[in-house]
Specification:
Number of strands: 9
Helix content: 40-55%
Number of domains: 2
Strand content: 5-15%
CATH class of the largest domain: Alpha Beta
CATH architecture of the largest domain: 3-Layer(aba) Sandwich
Strand order of the largest sheet: 1-8-7-2-5-6
Number of helices: 11
Largest sheet: 6 strands, parallel
Distance between the termini: 41 Å
Shape: globular
CATH topology of the largest domain: Rossmann fold
């Protein structure tokens, strides 16, 4: 069956799984998981233990996993993070799908997570295929305005070539950049993660695996969404 979704909005079960009365358990679960990870326990077994303890459904466990890191990871990610007031005049590499889907999800009222490392992460999943939605162009325009306000000298977007429709998103990004005279380039690459991990340039991503290895990063989604006030943002940075 083809994917006919027009929005990057909430999953049909999210109203129940992420309702206000579920948030205390999710926060406690994230706190417990972080405690275990900080003491060297493996993620899969720790997540199962915590998920069973708090009777979490699969999608709730995914949220807790995305929101949680060890104390050591939190400290190291903070060390390599640049503030928004430190990036004027810089060149950046952007994890294209990672940033775009988060802003799309916010604009369409999807669940967003404020995570323990300060990142904003969404609950969307692409499964190897990307579909343009109603919020795609507004998301790119919002991103573009935020980049322009910071006088970035160049922005290189990296898109996963194996992802279906990545070429169409590339063309859309290029057209928007041309229309607004933004200094953007877009590259389709086999695996952006490798480039983002190894570059010495400033990067934009909320991918945990990349953040643990990169040289320097900017928490762009947080800066943008703090100004747009997303309608469904769940703070999992502390225990209730």
């Amino acid at each position: 069956m083809s994917d006919a979704r027009k929005h990057r909005g909430p999953h049909p079960e999210d109203e129940t799984l992420f309702s206000a009365d579920q948030v205390p358990a999710l926060r406690s679960a994230a706190s417990h998981l972080s405690w275990l990870l900080s003491r060297g326990y493996a993620l899969p077994s720790s997540l199962k233990l915590v998920g069973d303890r708090f009777l979490l459904k699969e999608r709730q466990r995914t949220a807790v996993k995305r929101a949680t890191c060890s104390d050591q990871q939190k400290i190291e990610r903070a060390r390599t993070q640049l503030r928004s007031d430190e990036i004027a005049g810089r060149s950046i590499l952007v994890d294209g799908f990672n940033l775009t889907t988060t802003i799309e999800a916010s604009l369409s009222g999807g669940v967003l997570l404020r995570c323990q490392d300060g990142c904003i992460r969404d609950m969307a999943s692409m499964h190897g295929s990307y579909r343009k939605v109603t919020e795609t162009e507004p998301a790119l325009l919002l991103i573009g305005r935020q980049f322009a306000e910071r006088s970035l000298t160049s922005v290189k977007w990296l898109l996963d070539q194996p992802v279906s429709n990545s070429g169409r998103l590339r063309k859309l990004i290029e057209n928007i950049a041309l229309e607004h005279e933004w200094p953007w380039t877009v590259e389709l690459v086999p695996d952006p993660d490798v480039i983002l991990r190894e570059t010495s340039d400033l990067i934009v991503t909320a991918d945990s695996g990349i953040l643990d290895e990169c040289v320097q990063w900017w928490n762009a989604a947080e800066s943008m969404l703090d100004q747009t006030q997303p309608p469904w943002l769940i703070d999992l940075t502390h225990s209730s």
